[in-house]
Specification:
This protein folds into 2 domains: 6-122, P-loop containing nucleotide triphosphate hydrolases (Rossmann fold, 3-Layer(aba) Sandwich), CATH 3.40.50.300; 128-379, no CATH class. β2, α3 and β3 form a beta-alpha-beta unit. The chain has 15 helices and 13 strands. The longest helix has 24 residues, at 274-297. By secondary structure, the chain is an alpha/beta fold. α6 (138-148) packs across α13 and α7 (152-160) runs antiparallel to α8 (163-185). It is 42% helix and 19% strand. The strands form 2 sheets. The protein has an 8-stranded mixed β-sheet, sandwiched between helices. The protein has a 5-stranded parallel β-sheet with strand order 2-3-4-1-5, sandwiched between helices.
Length: 383
Amino acid sequence: MKRYLYNQIIEDLKKKIVFVTGPRQVGKTFLAKQIMEGFARPQYLNYDNINDLRIINDTSWALNTDLIVFDEVHKMKNWKRYIKGVYDTKPKNQSILVTGSARLDTFRQTGDSLAGRYLHLRLNPVSIKELSPIVPKTYDALELLNTFGGFPEPLLNAVSIEKEKAEIESARWKNQYYSDIIREDILEFSRIGEIKTMKTLLQLLRTKVGSPLSLNSIANDLQVSPNTIKKYIQILESLYIIFLVTPFHKNIARSILKEPKVYFYDTSFVEGDKGLKLENVCAVSLLKHVQFLFDTKGENIKLNYLRTKDNREVDFAIARDGELTHLIEVKLSDNKVSPSLKYFAERFKAVEAIQLVHNLKQNESRDGINVLRASDWLGELSA
């Protein structure tokens, strides 16, 4: 499978350093090695590999290397200064690609700024659009994402082997994946004594997908301070395990103070019914859409949701340049227009109001609200 960032990376490597970040096992290494195939003398260097580490420390790769791929180099002390030095002294025709499974801006080591020297692209899980070459029916693709999530290994297993075996392999993959995250990645950010609480928080968040998140309530459940919960959630965000969707408001500061909703990059980890998992799939798909437009087109576009004080809520809202463009409600089978969506649609008449329904026989339009097949609409997103 050719990932959706392939062409953009090839173009951006001609200009600057390219950073590609995203969740563990989302396909960064596979993509990097696909990119390498387009170069004559590439070299892949993983900071976690002892032999590669020696070459990195000694800067002893061949002088005629035309592409250097640094994987997980942000774990190096003063990594920014190191990459800056490599870039500033490299031969003219040498390109640099840096990949990592944590947000590079969360690593606060001292060092010179890389400002003006790099372009950042975020690699997200597989979407309906990416699946289309191998799963042409969008409904079937959404069913797969709802069951197996969008990470390449369990998802592609589901395409190539029978369902029962695929479900077993997916469960094994998921257990190993989250064990590795807790054992290795979270320890990068926190102390061993905090791991038990972090693990409990992660399990708790599985049951809170799609609901406004009260830090005080969670802090009370786990018997720690709200500031501690805030710190732990920031760590889980930084490791691309979860992401937050904040409520839309003209005043950005007020939006940040309101309660966010939490979603998982891996839909298969969500604890809930098919409807809740469908909402998570939509959240990941919309996040991928807005991040792709931001990273590759420079568009000022954000994913939010809408909620009033009397609990009227629409699942998702897309805003461009601070103005709403889309209101999106997600339903598994209910084609009756949501009262909350109708309420907001009447107040934002210039905004496109959509109710996405997975099990829908026919698309409809009611009172200016489009009731659409979820899989078809999601398949038309930018990435």
